[in-house]
Amino acid sequence: xxxxxWGKLAVEEPLSQDAIEKKAHDLLSQMTLKEKINQMAGDLSxxxxxxxxLWAYNYRPMxxxxxxxxxxxxxxxxxxxxxxxMNHATCFPVSMARGATWDIDLxxxxxxxxxxxxxxxxxxxxxxxxxxxxxxxAWGRAQETYGEDPYLLxxxxxxxxxxxxxHVMACAKHYALNSIENSRFKVNVKVDERTLxxxxxxxxxRCVDEGVASVMSAYNRxxxxxxxxxxxxxxxxxxxxxxxxxxxxxxxxxxxHDTKSSAMNGLDVEMPFAQxxxxxxxxLVEKGVVPGIVVDDAVMRILRQQIRFAQVGDFRxxxxxxxxxxxxxxxxxxxxxxxxxxxKNDIPVGDEDPLLPLKIPGNGRLALIGRLADQPNTGDKGSxxxxxxxxxxxxxxxxAAAHNFVITYDSAxxxxxxxxxxxxxxxxxxxxxxxxxxxxxxxxxxFSPVVGGDRQMLTxxxxxxxxxxxLAQVNPRxxxxxxxxxxxxxxxxxxxxxxxxxAWYPGTQGGHALxxxxxxxxNPGGKLPCTFPRSEEQLPFFESDVDEIIYGYxxxxxxxxxxxxxxxxxxxxxxxxTSFNYSNLRLExxxxxxxxxxxxxxxxxxxxxxxxxxxxxxxxxxxxMPVDSPLKxxxxxxxxxxxxxxxxxxxxxxxSRNLAYYDVQQQTWIVAPAVYDLFVxxxxxxxxxxxxRFYIVS
Length: 698
Ligand code: BGC
Description:
- By secondary structure, this protein is an alpha/beta fold.
- The radius of gyration is 25 Å and the shape is globular.
- Bound molecules: beta-D-glucopyranose (BGC).
- Residues 79, 127, 173, 251-252, 383 line the site of beta-D-glucopyranose.
């Protein structure tokens, strides 16, 4: 299918790899040096285009390398990852919420919807595959990524890439070790080679293997060098070792520091305008300081991807009617339903059943309390902000679903007033948590206060904590619904409430999804993509305003398990309105060759009364490795639906190479012959897992 917006790059028939190469070469050979250099930077003129951006950032695509003479449309960027940032697109739940779905197929469908909306709005490039590892929940942009585990991050990022790239190019970001917000423009992250390879890079490699068209370099430094000019990260690892054929673009405005170093070390595109590239780069090429082949290689990478993607897509699906259409809104609702994590569901004092799903008697009263219940709260308002034209708040959603009872809303500005509202109700739902003011991208706009950035606290705001405690005293049927982008510490009040639900930032349809879950139309099935600690002491060292920091090998569940500590809620944890039983863990063979495949199966039964979805997790560890190792690490997972009484056998395979450690001396991956522990079950907690052993044999 010919795509008009791809100009002269469009073709009738799909091109072979060789034909793509040839076409890119032909175009390159027709370019003057100036035209080549123009390919390598954003087209934005600093002042003219920058001013409107302050008010409506990325409302239209941001372009780079448009060349009308040769019919090259250039890169047309839209940001993400919550959806398409341009115009008024579908606002999906944030990535952390989607990480909690552990649903690869769903993430690919979200990618598909994003790709359709991006293209319908004139973009050909989605910059929203954010896969930075969540090392510490205070990270302001935690919500933009999928969690703390490299395997989960890689699988979710790859799924989003697959979906998006049916329509437009995708970009994986921010490469690498970008997980402190307030210091992002200056911090030097020190990391040893094994930690880098095993903890912070595998998910980027996964997306490269998936064919992601582009990678965005991070703002920060790694081991002394800026990521936008990092020879080791960009040239040695990404391009040479991993064979990445796409282009590397800088993070915006502050991502480049030196013309020669960036060009020589593998940064192909400076965004969103030429500060260090443009005429400065041209002069260095003319003087022979930067060889012409460096520029040719960069331009080939940009052209290759554009030619590849000029052949991709389905024209019948693009147009204004596809943006925020019914199908995408219902996908956003499904994602929100699947992402909510039920953390606690006890029987209130004096009752016989767990509090959820709520059963309000006819003409009864449900008190809905908290400022966030009546506020569109879709997350950060920085570069990832999606301007949904309508957001279903918890109040909207619960009101729409309350047919035979009354909802009394109280904003809780006065805790005393809220207590009275709660006292007169059959049950209470209190919505608490964070907004873009507490966490998000950190930057200042002229004349407006600083908002977002790294979280200043990991507990709820004091007012929220006080409110929960006061309400719990007058009404034992209280459900706490938390909103936020990552883990929240709940120690001071958790034991006083019977039910607790993590709703994240649930997107445009979040209020409906919340009602679906609270009233039992949908059974919650999400599981935590990050550990919820008991205290900050359970976390690695984190400092928001810092020039230098060391990232060690351990964080999240790996750190807690190694140090023998128990979190409030473990990685992979989430309850359901039904119960599941795991049995019959079996291995096809307990001896697996170093180049072989571990084959595991397990039976899972829905032993309750309602249909439900379970996320089966497989972890592997070994205490016989030649190097210090975690007790266990996630290696496979699967989400499946089961009817009451139904039993299914789940099969999971893990290639031995995925159990390798990185040998620093030999600079290579090694699958160690040893005895390994296998764990399969409902969460990372030992009590939730069946276990077995197997041997890797040479
Ligand atoms: C962010 C990136 C984003 C870019 C363009 C930067 O400030 O770090 O994630 O893609 O802006 O919007």
